[in-house]
Amino acid sequence: MYIRHTVFVTSILHFMVFFINFALDMEQTISEFLNTINEPLGGLMVAILSITGIWFTFRTRGVQFRMFGEMLRLLFNSTDNGSHKDNGTHKRVSSFEAFAVSLASRVGTGNLAGVATAIVIGGPGAIFWMWVMALIGSVNTFVECTLAQLFKTHGEDSFIGGPAYYIMKGLHKHWFACIFAIASIGQFGLTNNMVQANTISSAFTQAFGFSPQIMAIALTSITIAVIFGGIQRIAKVCSVIVPIMALGYLAIAIWIIITNITMIPSVLSLIVKSAFGLDQAVGGTIGAAITMGFKRGIFSNEAGEGSAPNAAATANVSHPVKQGLIQTLGVFTDTLIVCSCTAFIILCSGLYNCGQNGIGLTQVALSSHIGEIGKTIIAIAILFFAFSSVIGNYYYGECNVAFLCNGKSYTKAAIQGYRVILGIIVFFGCLMTIDIVWALVDFFMVIMTSCNLIAITFLGKYAIILLDDYRQQRRAGKDPTYKAETCPEIADETECW
Question: Distance between CA 348 and CA 352 in Å, rounded?
Fold first, then answer.
């Protein structure tokens, strides 16, 4: 009996070893396969994003530059942007709260780890091209968020909308909208959140010695408590977290810049020279600088990706262009401010060639300025940045789960199930690092971004019509209010106006 039991246990152990090795081999094979697809498609996606950005910049007469002051005015007066059809029967998500939800998703690990990776691979010049991508790509955000407002619909807790909705209502391609929705759930609802959770866990383990198990339980509990409150609670939490984390990180970066003010001209010169391949000694070719700058810029600010429109649609405003303009500020805030903070912290330290990469480089760079407490500050910053991304990303997934359910009786059950699955994703994300997850993040991003770019290319004309209408009303001294008859050919599809 003993021998038989021993043979059985040994067999089980051998099978487990075989299964683990098989799973690891398959993970590597699948990762390599996905990366083979992602590489050319990712390059094509960057090219199309740039082309659409240039095209819409021309068609809107540089709305992201000419109306920057209007964006700030609307943001500071966001409580007065209420819909002319709001009769108090629906719960409100303010213009600022919708902006905060989208910014929460944008400002994440890409701002701390992604910028560091871009500098290591592409050289300091990658930062210049990241800025260029933000300036060009921000108009894509204006168009997609204006369309999200135009084609939004009534949800249970607020307005609801996004690319899946304007693809269905504007292009009348339900199958195409479903592809986007599935990719969006895979990207933001699942794989991206596993990465964010893992980053939080790793940062706290290194800074404070917390075990991954404790972080998994704590982070999952907090996440579940927030997301089960729906968009109302998510919006409230984001409207508090986002300003604190952005202003706090900005204050640290400003202090470092001031204390290293004599280095700023040389740092800026380094960025520009590296961007155009004039100083190869700093690492990274001009091609690598452009590629990494554009890719990290897109990953960080999500302009044109189709994520921010899900949050933009929830806002209660009197004209779709109002929220389109406010959301454009999110791209500037993410890349031109937060990403630049990380870049200056790293470049002023002079440690960008020290052999570190990702979040480790950012921690080392900050520690060189303010001592070992820098690791603690980065860990806390990661908690705010990545956790806000988790709950912001969650809502993007919920929007698309609701779209796929199409108001059926099982919609609420599906959303509740999605919330439970997200909790599981966050829990295991804290405990493991899986290379295939990164490949899946890129794969889903390429699919959803491609779908969204095709949609806004065909539907962008409506955003331009609305922009002209908005400008005319502003010139007439009015507080712009949109009416469905402005675009009579789609009046039946714009039910909230």
Answer: 9
